[in-house]
Amino acid sequence: MSIFKKEKGTRNYLTNKEIKAIAKSNAQEMKRLEAYKNRKCEESEFLTEMKNPENILEIEDLHTSFFTEQGVVKAVNGVSYDVPKNAVVGVVGESGCGKSVTSMSVMRLIQGPTGQIVDGSIRFKSHEYKRNEKGEPILKAGSTTEYEMVDKVYDIAKMPIHEIHRIRGKQIAMIFQEPMTSLNPVFTIGEQLDEVTFFHIPGATKEMAKAKSEEMLRLVGIIPENVYGAFPHELSGGMRQRVMIAMALAAEPRLIIADEPTTALDVTIQAQILDLLQDIKNKIDGSILLITHDLGVIAEMADYVVVMYAGKVIEKGTVYEIFQDPKHPYTIGLQKSKPTMNLDDGTELYNIPGNVPNPINMPGYCYFKERCAMCTRKCSGDYPGMVQVSPTHFVACHLYDEEKNNG
Ligand SMILES: Nc1ncnc2c1ncn2[C@@H]1O[C@H](COP(=O)(O)OP(=O)(O)OP(=O)(O)O)[C@@H](O)[C@H]1O
Ligand code: SF4
Ligand SMILES: [Mg+2]
After folding, report:
1. Global pTM?
2. Half-sphere exposure of residue 169: CA atoms within 13 angstroms, side-chain side
3. Does residue 393 belong to any structural domain of this protein?
């Protein structure tokens, strides 16, 4: 709820008094959250345990908001989902539903002071260098190149921002939609790839870094001799995205977050990049969090699917459950809106009618109600809780409340 009152149906603007009240409340909250983000604390404050040791990432009741002049935009409003080890988890949902804000929260890339993680946990199992009191990695007894490793579980949401280097880029890597904006135009591909090794591997020499960069380029299907010395602008979009993937892999991450990794590419290159991601997942023994609004991509790649709507998870399950047995009316609608190759019979692409409610002033009831053809009297009541319909399938919709009571 926003902090201002709007007399129902009478006006669509904020008074000066309300604007001032929002600014004051925002300033207080942003100051408190910035101080928390920049605090100095013991490691024990942000160490935790996984609820399920088979997971690599557990997001629980995450709230990420933007403190705007119009009020608080609850972009991520109580999101919970897990990424199991060695799995691909696909996140779908229409534009603006909070897919990217969730993943940016995991990477702690939300831009403050306006954007803030307000509440919740992001538990991540890290495998990292064991360090001495000075923070230096400890060599294995009798070795000059191998270091001792240790497993730790961090609550990323509670980590002070200056500690995030422990995982960002190294343990969790991100592949963005537009590779050109992520590559530095004034350095060669080789220089940028080598830099990842220098940054993440203690004592790495120039030769080591180059060997690693070439290995990564080969892994993504690039002949290193052709590309190592090239500048980003000399490569095609597909090649740049491969380089970005190579760069993400150079640090040997345990989790790759790919946010619309193929949207900027043409269809044939898209298929190649997806094959590459699948191949890499098997090779690196890691997990992929794949964010896209393309259901075809999800069907092909994902083991599990999370469906988001207006800042919340409304359904999650295995890819089979979500595609073969969707439960939530929104997910059922999404399946219908999936483009097919044979639309030449005059059928229009199905569009779910209606709009998402105003993110500053969300209603107390189901956010999908205004667009839902299946709503009942119950739907005007509280926001529906998550109901478990199979060991792996969950849905937030009143139509399944019975199953909760029975189960
Ligand atoms: N800097 C910001 N200030 C205010 N609101 C923001 C900001 N960044 C994101 N939002 C809001 O957060 C919500 C979620 O945005 P997000 O980028 O996560 O959507 P998305 O699901 O990734 O959509 P898309 O499919 O278009 O990438 C949106 O309503 C957006 O308007
Ligand atoms: S809770 Fe009601 S309004 Fe919401 S999706 Fe389910 S049936 Fe539709
Ligand atoms: Mg996005």
Report:
1. 0.90
2. 15
3. yes
